[in-house]
């Protein structure tokens, strides 16, 4: 299975990776600053708590714990997240493609998994978008089934794919460091 990012030359991949990583970190910093009002006892992790609420009662408690600035921060974050999705997913996807190249050259196991995981990262962004639709419906129309459950399922798939991609990218980094040392 091939991925469009494999068409980039190795030097283009590295340049794109660092540019996207910088953008991803900047967006994360914006989220950290703008999302602070959402951190309450009911939602200790702010919007992430809301994403994984999983039930009407927990989602309602979180929304009730947010004052107007927190609700505005949540609305901003749900919109701004659509910029974050292609940034983080493509950054980690590139990491997977680069890791696959290192693993292939080092003849380490799982070298062929990189392209599949890169596709998985783009799928994670799609699940993130669907999750945001469910959260937006909850914020605008009131919390009702099945939206907290839909958001939870989408968040779990997103986080699973993201964690798998990160582990694979760091596996490739470890291979690169090991091959250099040996």
Summarize the structure.
34% of the residues are buried. Helices cover 78% and strands 0% of the residues.
Would you write up a description of this structure?
The chain has helices spanning 10-34, 47-51, 56-65, 68-106, 114-141, 147-181. It has 182 residues and is an all-alpha fold. 78% of the residues lie in helices and 0% in strands. Helix 1 runs antiparallel to helix 4. The chain has one domain (7-181). The mean pLDDT is 96. The chain contains 6 helices and no strands.
Q: Please summarize the sheet with the most strands.
A: none
Unreliable spans: none
Decide which structural class fits the backbone: mainly alpha
Gross geometry:
elongated
- Give the strand content: under 5%
Record field, number of beta strands: 0
Give the key terms.
single chain; mainly alpha; 182 residues
List the helices and strands and how they pair.
Blueprint: H1 10-34, H2 47-51, H3 56-65, H4 68-106, H5 114-141, H6 147-181
Helix pairs in contact: 1-4, 4-5, 4-6, 5-6
């Amino acid at each position: 299975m091939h991925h469009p990012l494999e068409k980039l030359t190795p030097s283009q991949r590295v340049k794109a990776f660092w540019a996207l990583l910088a953008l991803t970190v900047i967006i994360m910093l914006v989220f950290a600053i703008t999302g602070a009002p959402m951190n309450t006892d009911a939602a200790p992790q702010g919007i992430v708590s809301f994403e994984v609420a999983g039930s009407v009662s927990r989602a309602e408690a979180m929304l009730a714990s947010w004052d107007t600035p927190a609700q505005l921060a949540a609305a901003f974050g749900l919109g701004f997240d659509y910029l974050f999705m292609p940034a983080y997913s493509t950054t980690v996807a590139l990491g997977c493609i680069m890791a696959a190249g290192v693993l292939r050259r080092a003849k380490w196991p799982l070298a062929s998994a990189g392209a599949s995981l890169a596709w998985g990262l783009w799928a994670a962004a799609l699940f993130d978008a669907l999750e945001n639709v469910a959260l937006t419906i909850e914020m605008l129309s009131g919390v009702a089934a099945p939206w907290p459950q839909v958001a939870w399922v989408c968040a779990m798939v997103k986080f699973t794919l993201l964690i798998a991609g990160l582990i694979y990218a760091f596996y490739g980094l470890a291979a690169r460091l090991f091959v250099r040392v040996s």
